[in-house]
Amino acid sequence: MTSTMPNDGDRNEERRRRVLLGPLPAGFLRADGDTAADNAMDADYQAALALQQQLCGAQVPAAGPPLTARLSITIAQAKLVKNYGLTRMDPYVRLRVGHCIYETHTDPSGGKTPRWNKVIHCLLPPGVNSVYLEIFDECSFTMDELIAWTHITIPQAVLNGETHGDWYPLNGKQGDGVEGMINLVLSYSVGPAAVATFPPVLVVPSTGMGYAAMPVYPQQQSMQPPQQRAHPPPPPPITPEQIQQIEEMFPSMDKEVIKSVLEVNHGDKDATINSLLQMSE
């Protein structure tokens, strides 16, 4: 029996049948070590992306734009028990939400009954369920003096979508809870990340919290003398007729609370009535 040896033509045909057709695999010409390094880089990227979204308070749904939790706080007014100094105080409020600090304008000569009616829209980071508030007396030639402070837990009703207004006790030199009261109106919503919020005055690191744990770290040091705080124009006035109409519907509701909620809703009567109904339930 004679064996048939494959010739060169048969060998070439066999090699052609073994050729890999189609797109090359992802690991083509790549060592195993390179693949492991790439996987580690992908994991680091995903971890950094998740951390960034957490710090920004963003929630990424399965489809659609990212959503953010937004807290609206109306700092209406305060009633303090003592005026520190020889002249009437010029109070302003400093508010901390998460790592961000916001401030109201100064109420010149506000004394023991300052009014701000300042609405602050801010992002509410995940896990944050309270805010820290301080009242300062603005001084022209010395450091601003801390008058009062408080730590406020956000009511669960607010996180459920209701508008909530209340008077909160203040701590200070007179003692805990006896320095006075401050009137706040809070509301909460979740919406697209593109919704505008107020930029914070400062961003501070995370520390153990307390009234003294709201340190101010200027972003840039300057040798120029401090300038007077800018006083923004007051919000558009609410007419007495608007307040009277709503007062007739809510005779037991405090007039200042009605005015604050009306300003939060930019004079929208229907939205104000709905908010007051939620507060009175």
How would you sum up this structure, described in words?
- It is a single chain.
- The chain is of the alpha+beta class and 281 residues long.
- 25% of the residues lie in helices and 29% in strands.
- It has six helices and ten strands.
- Strands 1, 2, 3, 4, 5, 6, 7, 8, 9 and 10 form a ten-stranded antiparallel beta sheet that branches.
- A hairpin with a 2-residue loop joins strand 8 (164-172) and strand 9.
- Helix 5 crosses helix 6.
- The N and C termini lie far apart (105 Å).
- 23% of the residues are buried.
- The model is unreliable at 56-62, 206-213 and 215-226 (pLDDT under 50).
Distance between the termini: 105 Å
Mean pLDDT: 74
Unreliable residue stretches: 56-62, 206-213, 215-226
Q: Give the structural class.
A: alpha+beta
**H/E element string?**
HHEEEEEEEHEEEHHH
Compute the number of strand runs: 10
Continuous helix count: 6
Helicity range: 25-40%
Give the overall shape, derived from the CA principal axes. Answer: elongated
Radius of gyration: 30 Å
Oligomer: single chain
Main sheet attributes: strand count, strand direction, barrel closure: 10 strands, antiparallel
In terms of DSSP E residues, the strand content is 25-35%
